[in-house]
């Protein structure tokens, strides 16, 4: 069996290939990083969804002649944009 370095101590090559025990900090870090990446992607998708909803509200505002309805749609669009911005800020 081959040996590979893990920090300052040798470990079996099979362990280095991804079969490390549950107490290995490298595995925990990789798992945490993957979860964080997935969370970031989900948040960015939400932000995109919110921006699409804002665009829909803006299109409805442009399509209506009723001034009060137009203002309502524009306010809804502003709120969707604000929510998208907040989600993106959380990501940073």
What is the count of helical runs? 3
Apparent shape: rod-shaped
User: How are the strands of the largest sheet arranged?
Assistant: 1-2
Helical amount: over 70%
Total beta strand runs: 2
Query: Kindly state the mean pLDDT as a whole number?
Result: 77
Observed structural traits:
single chain; 9% strand; disordered N terminus; 92 residues; 74% helix; rod-shaped; two-stranded antiparallel ribbon; mainly alpha
Description:
- This protein has 92 residues and is mainly α.
- The protein is 74% helix and 9% strand.
- The protein is built from three helices and two strands.
- It has helices at 13-16, 25-63, 67-91, and strands at 3-6, 9-12.
- Strands 1-2 form a two-stranded antiparallel sheet.
- A hairpin with a 2-residue loop joins strand 1 and strand 2 (9-12).
- Helix 2 runs antiparallel to helix 3.
- The longest helix is centred in the middle third of the chain and has 39 residues, at 25-63.
- The chain starts with a strand and ends with a helix.
């Amino acid at each position: 069996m081959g040996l590979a370095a893990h920090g300052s101590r040798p470990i079996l090559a099979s362990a280095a290939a991804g079969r490390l025990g549950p107490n290995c900090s490298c595995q925990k870090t990789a798992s945490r990083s993957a979860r964080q990446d997935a969370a970031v992607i989900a948040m960015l998708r939400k932000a995109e969804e919110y921006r699409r909803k804002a665009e829909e509200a803006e299109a409805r505002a442009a399509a209506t002649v009723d001034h009060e309805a137009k203002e309502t749609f524009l306010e809804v669009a502003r709120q969707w944009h604000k929510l998208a911005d907040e989600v993106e800020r959380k990501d940073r």
